[in-house]
Write a structure and sequence with these properties.
The protein is of the alpha+beta class and 98 residues long. Helix content is 57%, strand content 14%. A hairpin with a 5-residue loop joins strand 2 and strand 3. The chain is globular, with a radius of gyration of 15 Å.
Length: 98
């Protein structure tokens, strides 16, 4: 359990993984999806996820060079965990609003 929690730790990490669960995204697309997130933090989070082996970065040979991020097979294994975290958050929010 600790390994999985460490892999998804850090502010914005679960939201980035959520966005990548919908398919490959460019840096700009990820930035647009999370407008409160600074470029520096986004770059740091993406680097963390790459070190953890959860996402892959592919560069397209063009000008300017464009990078696309996608989940790795290990990242795909987090899908049920993230889905359950989302559901649990919804339930906790309903209980708190009562």
């Amino acid at each position: 359990m600790e390994i999985a929690l460490h892999a998804i730790s850090g502010r914005w990490t679960t939201l980035l993984l959520r966005d990548l669960m919908h398919g490959p995204r460019s840096f700009g697309q990820l930035r647009t999806g999370l407008p409160s997130l600074s470029d520096k933090v986004l770059a740091d989070r993406l680097a963390h996820l790459r070190r953890e082996g959860l996402i892959d970065r592919q560069e397209q040979k063009a000008f300017p060079t464009r990078s696309t991020y996608s989940l790795t097979r290990a990242g795909e294994h987090l899908r049920p965990l993230l889905t359950q975290l989302y559901r649990t958050g919804q339930q906790l929010q309903r209980h708190a609003s009562r």
